[in-house]
Amino acid sequence: MILLEHIPDFFLFVIAIAYAEIHYRIGILPSRYFIKEPEIIADVPNRLQKGPLLPVAVVVKDSDKYPVKIQQITCRITQPYPFSCILPIDQVLERHFWAICPDVQLPDEMTGCLSVDIIIDYEYRGKQKRCINDNYKLLSHRPFSVFVDPEPLPCEKGWALGDLHTHSHLSRDQVEFGAPPHISRKMAKAMGLSYFAVTDHSYDLDDSPHNYLVNDPSLPKWNELWNTVSELNSQDEHFVIIPGEEVSAGNCKSRNVHCLILNNPDFIPGSGDSAEKWLHTRPEHSITYCLSRKQSSAAVIAAHPFVPIPFLQKMLVRRDKWRKQDVMHEHLDGLQLWNGDDEYFMATGIQEWIQLLLQGRQIGLFAGTDAHGNFNRFRQIGLPHFSMKESEKEVFGRAHTGLYIDQELSVGRIIKAIQRQHAFVSNGPFAWLDFRANGKRFMVGDRCTKRSGEIQINCKTTKSFGVLKAAVLIIGDCALQQEVNRPLKVTQACYRKRVSLDIANLPEKGYLRLKVVTDKNCVAYTNPIYLT
Length: 532
What we know:
Elements: H1 7-13, E1 39-43, E2 47-49, E3 53-55, E4 57-61, E5 68-79, E6 83-93, E7 97-100, E8 103-105, E9 112-124, E10 127-132, E11 144-149, E12 159-166, H2 181-191, E13 195-201, H3 202-205, E14 207-208, E15 211-215, H4 220-235, E16 240-250, E17 256-262, H5 287-292, E18 299-303, H6 311-317, H7 324-327, E19 334-339, H8 342-358, E20 364-368, E21 378-381, E22 388-391, E23 400-404, H9 411-419, E24 423-426, E25 430-437, E26 440-443, E27 447-448, E28 453-460, E29 468-477, E30 482-488, E31 496-503, E32 510-518, E33 523-526, E34 529-531
Parallel strand pairs: 2-11, 12-13, 13-16, 18-19, 19-20, 27-34
Antiparallel strand pairs: 1-4, 3-8, 4-7, 5-6, 5-9, 9-10, 9-11, 12-23, 14-15, 16-17, 17-18, 21-22, 23-24, 24-33, 25-26, 25-28, 28-31, 29-30, 29-32, 32-33, 32-34
């Protein structure tokens, strides 16, 4: 039996995300995954840029309730050949949250796919214990797979690659928590990325640091986010973290959808789907209101706008998809249609975007993963109190957005690139498109009035992402409501294609965009050059 006062908690369990909170229970209901120990979770990057150092993240939560002594951490590699490294810790923990990310020095010749276990030896209540990769009772504890790539991510000078939708330890409540920004930065740099955005839930950022069920109007967690990001950015001129929030806002049907609001100094509240209060599921503010609060230094992107909403989330926390009326707001900078689920994006998300383009909506395409501190494996509560699950979806950095910066990297220049749609999305290859006419250059995101000129195409991949299988110039015609594909000839074993094409008789209203595919089903899509 679920008591009435615990119904909001049940609602929140419906939307649980990794890392999973295993100590919170609904009333007196028994839980199969509850343990009288702190959560102990290890993680490693899914991809490692060639180099000697492998960062190893270890997070311990709730040791204030269940004190523990972490004795040592062992990194054990079984493939491609045996290797191990012991990291002595010897630390007694009695705090709510603790996280470290030491480096393991790998042999220089170790490349390819590694099979990695992180073994944590600890003492709990006088007993020697050991867990491998995590101490969640119902998960596999199987080895992590880390690909050590001898080549950098495909890119070109002037571009920056990053993840526009991630969460930190500040997205913390009854069912979830993430990793601190300094650990995400270390993992991102190891993967070869140049930036990421921290977009914690608006309904978590207004909580008291000591009690996620109590709001604090002084916004200590929001201030902590901005202060932490500012400090980290001051330490490294070659890497940028974008502060932000994922705001729960009301769509045209007054139901809850999510907005990524990046680098906006003012906090925008939104707790309609937080399940913090019984029967309080209506959004406080609309999408229109959120956009009206956007400052010139900020960008607003629709988060996973068309992903189907599970029935229970529709019913219990009033969640919904973005509707056509919602995405027509002129101050909306783009759609984060790629949300860590490659299969959904390639089958459905990209088609939703194409329909909007053909209808004349000049809206940018962006990618992120919605990762909650999961760098290699996505861990999640399945059925509340009964099951847990894990997968490789929504893993940090797997899908990224390439932004044309051209100058020194900074938060401001990243925001400008987003606002101008100077971007492509990818899970591997690089794609770039230029149109030149009468001495003027137009790149992705630009508006062009010319009907003929020269198109310059540049696509690039590496062995790890596969050889080029197809490079397609796509011409959209809004009047005819159709796209025409112009495939480029790709030779066998081709990893790079640069070509210039003369083109004429372009549509009066339409667009040009580029799609690149490899033989390993890695893809890249550029934003359009708009013909107006």
